[in-house]
Amino acid sequence: MEPKIKWVALGYSVPINPSRNRVYVWRKLKEFGAEYFKQGVAVLPQNKKNTVRLSRLAQRITEMGGEAQLVELRFLNPADEAELISRFRRQSETEYGALLHDCASLLGQIRVHAGQKLSEYEADQMKKVVRRYAQARSRDHFHSSVAGEIEESLFGAIDLFRSSASDLASQLCHTLEKLGS
Predict the structure, then answer these.
(1) What is d(CA 94, CA 83) in angstroms, rounded to the nearest whole number?
(2) Which CATH number fits domain 7-74: 3.30.70.240, 3.40.1190.20, 3.50.50.60, 1.10.357.140?
(3) Ranges of each domain in the chain
(4) Distance (Å, rounded) from C-alpha 31 to C-alpha 26?
(5) Residue 33: Cβ within 10 Å count
(6) What is the phi/psi pair of residue 134, to 5°?
(7) How far is 94 from 3, CA to CA, in rounded Å?
(8) Helix axes 78-112, 120-139, angle to 10 degrees
(9) Model confidence over 26-67: pLDDT tens digits?
(10) H or E segment at 37?
(11) φ, ψ for residue 75 (rounded to 5)?
């Protein structure tokens, strides 16, 4: 059985119009990795970062003309809490699964061009994957083991870049030496 966790919950309602306000709140909660306890009640494990995030969002919702309450939540039934934790873990594993797929695909492309300069597209894709990983990691409230697999893939890519850069540096030195002769 999982240990009991302190939770912070944001109960809110946002006026129907303009719809961009509801979309803003939804996107922020998604960015934080929140799960819904019930409709209009988003939950995160309680820590300073999550409490501050939800507190700021509650303030923003109020500024939009909505209502928001921030409360501490404690489960009385361990099975209910375990189900919520499971939902958080599934959320992370789904996101990490997509990242693993994209990392493998990108590594395959980079290996095909090993020893050559990365294309601008490949460099941009690598930067996007790293940013997505950082975002996924910030939403991984229960520290999925899959994160380690992604880090290994990313470090593998970095090693490929290092060897490519080293090979390129050697080639350039050799070319310059030939010019000097």
Answers:
(1) 16
(2) 3.30.70.240
(3) 7-74, 89-180
(4) 9
(5) 20
(6) -60, -40
(7) 24
(8) 170
(9) 999 999 999 999 999 999 999 999 999 999 999 999 999 999
(10) strand 35-38
(11) -85, 135
What are 48's two structure tokens?
Answer: 């300073």
Report the b/e string of 114-134 with b at 16+ CB within 10 A. Answer: eeeebeeebeebbeebbebbe
Backbone angles phi, psi at 67, to 5 degrees: -120, 140
Band of residue 147 on the pLDDT scale cut at 50, 70, 90: confident
| pLDDT at residue 99 is higher than 70 | yes
Distances (CA, A) of 107 to 94, 121, 134: 20, 13, 18
